[in-house]
Amino acid sequence: RKLGFEMASDYQTGSLLRTLAATKPAGRILELGTGTGLSAAWMLDGMDASSRLTSVDTDKDAVSVARNALDHDPRVTFIIQDGSEFLRSLTGKTFDLIFADTWPGKIWDLDLALNLLAPGGMYVVDDMSHQAHWPNDHLPKIDRLIENLENRDDFFQTKLAWSTGIMIITKKPHQADS
Q1: Over the stretch 126-154, which tens digit does the pLDDT of each residue have?
Q2: How far apart are CA 22 and CA 176, in angstroms?
Q3: What are phi and psi of 16, to 5 degrees?
Q4: Burial of 129 by CB count in 10 Å (0-12 exposed, 13-18 middle, 19+ buried)?
Q5: Nearest to 94 by CA among 72, 112, 77
Q6: Where are the alpha helices (DSSP H) in the chain?
Q7: Side-chain half-sphere of 130: how many Cα atoms within 13 Å?
Q8: Strands lying side by side in the sheet with 155-160
Q9: Is 0.85 topped by the overall pTM?
């Protein structure tokens, strides 16, 4: 509250993230947009001891709240860096679950994020339903994102009219040539 940070994911989204993280034993999980660490805490709660979470944000003050609460957990690494730069630095790496809760990897550089998914990996975005606090130019960006995700044939997609509007896409396993 002291920081004026009002963009934390809601509890329904956190509960879903915990459940999804639990489906990825020894999983490699990426969070784009740490904020104050609420979603990271939910995912850590669902992760097993071998899983690893990397959480990236540019807001040093908000991430300091997350670090204060969660840095004792060796499964999480917090990175202060521009999300687009971070995504570009990950050539050859893959993740089993990506929660994109900021502009890089969601509104722009979507392909960079999706290319990091392992087969069977899940990409999760929230805030897909109109929110009263959105600026006027935001809804068209979300509409384009949804259209882009729906038109991909390399992923299965599910839209949930729940919480703040959630979309989950899963990378299809590689198909052997027949």
Answers
A1: 988 877 777 788 888 999 999 999 999 99
A2: 28
A3: -65, -45
A4: middle
A5: 112
A6: 11-22, 38-46, 60-70, 83-88, 110-114, 138-150
A7: 6
A8: 76-80, 52-57, 28-32, 95-100, 117-125, 166-171, 155-160
A9: yes
